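JOB MANIFEST
job_type = single_chain_structure
chain_count = 1
residues = 253
[input]
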Amino acid sequence: MKIVRVRTDEGIAYGAVEPEGIRLYKGSPLFEWESTEVVTPFESVQLLSPVFPTKVLAIGRNYADHAAEMDSAIPESPILFLKPATAVIGPGAAIVIPPDSTNVHHEAEVAVVIGSVARNVRAENAASVILGYTAANDVTARDIQRADGQWTRGKGYDTFCPLGPAIETEFDPLEGPQVMCRVNGEVRQSGPTTDMVFGVAELIEFITRVMTLLPGDVILTGTPSGVGPIVAGDIVEVEVETIGVLTNPVVKA
């Protein structure tokens, strides 16, 4: 199932993608929801970020080829950092280049959407706390990240976490779907999820030993090689095979 969060004339609602449109639901898939008889055409709704998390957990250098292009060693354990919920935007919303950065990069990623309260979850039980997966762009002010080593500052600006377009509940990263990024139609990144250093189950076990994950929280699982700059006027597409394409324009503050 592909789950979306949309704005309609009546307000914000969750829905499921069907061939003829989006079937609207009452409630939320994170807690309790119920199908309605309303199927609205795709063009009559605005896609929003599929969740609005309490927190976004992100993993650094989780693809060996990306670690190499950053002149960094492959980590012995996951590198964990936070992006604020206020960085989250949905499909079509603009990534805003902040005035204090001149080197903002795209980072295409698979995002895990947590479906239930998760604390001290063992890797073999990780699937039980996952609602599904979506596409993400871990936008990064690379000059700021490198200047002072503050990953959260360089990656935490408003609009620096596009998510969408949908949550795919049947996605399996172990099957090796491709994660891609295109800028103005040019392919910049492409790599399979099987190239991750630490898999999703390992990440959930590692993170939930530290903190409790709540329904709707998001884990960004790392990016393949090929990260590079984006500037005002660009159109950035993050595509995750079987999930869909997340498209965002770039503007300057």
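[summary]
The CA atoms of residues 237 and 247 lie 4 Å apart.
The longest helix spans residues 200-208.
exit_status = 0
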